[in-house]
Design goal:
The chain is α+β, with helices and mostly antiparallel strands. It folds into 4 domains: about 100 residues, 2-Layer Sandwich (Alpha-Beta Plaits), CATH 3.30.70; about 60 residues, MutS, DNA mismatch repair protein, domain I, CATH 3.40.1170.60; about 50 residues, Orthogonal Bundle (DNA polymerase, domain 1), CATH 1.10.150; about 100 residues, Dna Ligase, domain 1 (2-Layer Sandwich), CATH 3.30.1490. Helices cover about 35% and strands about 20% of the residues. It has 14 helices and 12 strands. The chain has a 5-stranded mixed beta sheet with strand order 5-6-1-7-8. Strand 7, helix 7 and strand 8 form a beta-alpha-beta unit. Helix 13 runs antiparallel to helix 14.
């Protein structure tokens, strides 16, 4: 497939910054409690059923990572200190950081409490250098909030996000327009945002280890082996990613879930837990004033394997009784392969706005030159 376009119309000489806070939850805890500074710290549960939500850099040295079971983290680091998450505090700090972002541009797209994209092509400071803006933002966060942040700067969101992880912690990486292709070709495919462990392993088996290897494959080959994602991989390794920074990101789903102290094998007990989960989800839906049509049941088994089962209803719902009834139907849809450690219900296909008609991206790779 040939990609072509008017570069001014599509890329518009964009200057995108991806700001990513360093070990955010853990750093907030260490900031608020000086006794925790310099020590291996995990935010989350350290018990038999607990999971690490975030790990300080002192803990990461031992291999402790987010989403890791608490018992495994303790084995890797016996001196690991666990603290319970304080999301109200994290939201408070995140709000302070976003206020700093908005002093530079109104085009801010938060991805989570600890990271965001900023389009500074035209900014409130009148500064033509996105690199200097990123440096100033990071300094402001440190001076006014007390935390460090890392940043990636480039011509699109994908490259900026990959670059933000390059010089962590407390660093930044600028990938100038003329450097984008070489930068992507030299990366291990596991560094590509969106390439998970399963896809990474599959690529390795095919001899695709770097961006250069990925770029050597045809679009047809990638689509044949990776489905729709293949087309995405074909474009991003060529520096093509046209997604704009969207200040008002529409919520795609809402969910509630529970991890149990003991594994559950009885479906009767599962239904009891699902009832409270459905009620919690109803509260969240009504607080956000949304309804949805697609109900998804999430099941994590005792061996940590994950299974999801979904059903799309012909009408929008936000009622706990309907959510529970649908989740019950999904539960009985197939036999359980093992005891269960986590159950969750999510609702997607929300009535949050009109869907835009997607247009196929047709762009040519053109070398851009402007002050970064």
């Amino acid at each position: 497939m040939t990609y072509f376009c008017n570069v001014e119309a599509i890329l518009a000489n964009r200057k995108i910054i991806h700001v990513d806070m360093d070990a955010f939850y853990a750093s907030v805890e260490q900031m608020d409690d000086p006794d925790l500074r310099g020590k291996p710290l995990a935010v989350g549960g350290g018990g038999k059923r607990g999971v690490v939500s975030a790990a300080s850099y002192e803990a990461r040295v031992f291999g402790v990572r987010s989403a890791m079971p608490g018992f495994k983290a303790r084995k890797l680091c016996p001196d690991l200190i666990f603290v319970r998450p304080r999301f109200d505090r994290y939201k408070e700090i995140s709000s302070q950081i976003r206020k700093i972002f908005f002093e530079f541009t109104d085009l801010v797209e938060p991805l989570s409490l600890d990271e965001a994209y900023l389009d500074v092509t035209e900014n409130k400071k009148g500064n033509p250098s996105a690199s200097l803006i990123a440096k100033e933002i990071r300094q402001r966060i440190f001076d006014e909030v007390g935390l460090t942040a890392s940043a990636g700067i480039s011509i699109n969101k994908f490259v900026a996000k990959v670059a933000s992880d390059y010089n962590k912690p407390n660093g930044q990486k600028t990938v100038n327009p003329e450097e984008v292709i070489d930068f992507l070709e030299g990366l291990d495919v596991k560094k590509f945002y969106g390439v998970g462990k399963v896809t990474q392993a599959k690529m390795y088996q095919m001899g695709i280890y770097t961006g250069k290897d990925l770029k050597s494959k045809s679009e047809e080959f990638l689509i044949q082996n990776f489905g729709k994602s293949g087309g995405h991989y074909y474009r991003i390794v060529r520096g093509i990613h046209l997604s704009e920074v969207k200040p008002n990101r529409e919520r795609k789903s809402l969910a509630a879930e529970r991890t149990f102290n003991e594994n559950i094998a009885s479906e009767i007990y599962m239904l009891e837990r699902l009832e409270s989960i459905a009620e919690e989800l109803q509260k969240r839906l009504k607080n956000n004033k949304v309804s949805g049509r697609t109900v998804t049941l999430k099941i994590r088994y005792s061996d940590f394997t994950l299974q999801t089962r979904s059903k799309t209803l012909p009408y929008f719902v936000n009622d706990a009784a309907i959510l529970l009834e649908t989740a019950k139907e999904l539960l009985y849809q197939d036999k359980m392969k093992d005891s269960v450690r986590l159950l969750g219900i999510s609702l997607s296909n929300l009535n949050t706005g009109k869907k835009e008609t997607k247009k196929k991206e047709e762009v040519e790779i053109i070398q851009l030159r402007f002050d970064f």
